[in-house]
Structure formats: structure tokens, C-alpha cells
Specification:
mainly alpha, Arc Repressor Mutant, subunit A, 2 domains, 76% helix
Length: 102
Amino acid sequence: MSSNLKDLRTPRKDDLDKKETASSSPNLSTTPQKTIDRVESSLDKLSIFSRMVLRMRYGLETGAPMDHEEISDVLQIRVSRVKELEEIALRHLAYKKRALKH
């Protein structure tokens, strides 16, 4: 093994220190739940099909993301419609995010 590859595979001491600091921070344990709550709240504002597409596409229910074809099979709609629903939903969420900043 070349020394460059070995260097990449071996964590540096400062990397290990960062991991210890991150896991010991009390705020980080609540952050994922707050993020999940915000995502759920945002998804609730979408149509049922858009919400289902995003949940499947990003694996929000099962932890395993699905591709457009798989979602198409589950929902019994065309792949092009799955892509359209995903695009509309993401655009809607981005618009809402921008509106909240102003």
C-alpha cells in the first residue's frame, strides 16, 4: 500500500478530537430531532403525492432512498410524473424557506 493511501485511511489525532467534542456536546443530541420536526412540518404543507414522493425519494420512512422508477411502481404513476412531483415539491419548499428569511 502506498503511503498516500495509508495516510487517507488512518484518522489524524485532530480528527479524533473533533469526534469526541461533537459527541459530548449536549446541543447536538437535540439538533436531529429539531431538524426532523422542521422537515415534517414542511412536508405537511405539500400535497399528499408530493409528500409521498419526497418521503420515498429520500428514504424518510425506511432509511432507504428509492429511485424514480421504484417510486413510479409503488404509486402506479409514470416516471415523468414522479420527477415532476419531486421538482414541484422541492421548489415549493425552497420558496417557503426563502420567504421565512425575509
